[in-house]
User: What shape does this take?
Amino acid sequence: MTDAATTTAAPAKAKNNFAAVGIGVSDMARSVEFYTNVMGMKQMQTFDLPHMKEVVLGYKGDVAVVLMHYIDGSVQNYTNNPVKLVFNIDDPKALAARFHAAGLEVTREPEPLPEFGGMIVGLAKDPDGYVIEMLKQPS
Assistant: This one.
């Protein structure tokens, strides 16, 4: 019989993770203004590529949104695409008020949903019609 020490190493950090989602926008300046002023995101990077302009926005240490606007003359469908961006929000009602103040559509005012354990859920649309879902976990 031998004595063998068993050590358990901490699990290695995953090498793969989700970093960003890209959405096409019809008016880069308007979308940057929306995501920074209404959503409170920070502009992190800008890329001027031969075929498109990209602006990367996010919250510190979180998944980013990449705004893309094609400048190569290709035909793009930027509006009312079936895309939903989901955000955890500290104050969904205040965010909905910022949507209203910006003249943007709030399709569901933030309210608790019993079927989601009382989580506050609200829905609105960004300048190109992408659905923004606002979530706040119950207290």
